[in-house]
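Hi Y.,

Following your request, here is the sequence exactly as I used it, all 261 residues.
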Amino acid sequence: MRKLITLLSSIMLVIIFFGCAEDSDTERQKVSVLIPLYIFSEGNEGTLQAVHDAASQLDVTAVINPNNGQFDAQTPGFEAFVDVTAALVENNVTTLGYVYTQYGERDIEAVKSNILAYAQSFDMNGIFFDEAASDDDLIAYYQDLRTFMDEETLFTIALLNPGVAADTSYVIGDDAPATDLVIFEKPYYELQVESLQPYLLEHAPEKFVCIVTETPFSLMKEMVDRSIALNCGHIYVTDNDYDLLPSYWDEFVDYMVEKNQ
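Below is the corresponding structure, written out as tokens. Let me know if you'd prefer a different format.
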């Protein structure tokens, strides 16, 4: 009888172990790539193909930036950006348009004009608000922009980039102006897990973005791991400017895919 009880106990432990492992895999958040893709189509066919190939393996979001978001049909290179955007969307890349806000000090009507220009010119998913404020005393500015975007366009993504962990009211709550928030955009040597804001762990990683620059290949994987530890679900690690992919793009994509397995 004792042997039977021991055997049954062992079986139960195995079942519990694998059951917990299965639950863990189910609950694991997938990571995705977010790319500041500041390129034209001419002469960059290889770069675009590399992004398209990555999007067949994991979720990819790309930010396009025609003339700092200030453009019309006569702007040099406009048609090239139309081609880039169409190709990205066709290849299942979530696509955002770049608009700067000067940390809440830019004329809000000028920002709204940029939003409308994207909505009227491109088939895309939303807006990347760069140079975003991080203090709660400017949140009304961004709430106004979010309301405008929701009412005047079909965009569903409002990604704010203060480059730091902004006040929680920017991304959490019914009146939050952002759907997603860049909590880090700095060189690799400033990315410290010890600086994690506790509130970040209370919310889904898909709301947070880490962009790690100036990163040598030898530290790429470590920076991905640190970004995940900071609860970032969208990650970009690079050693190049934003008009080029990182020199280790293929290895970066492979490692991101590996983190999702």
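The radius of gyration is 21 Å.

Thanks again,
Q.
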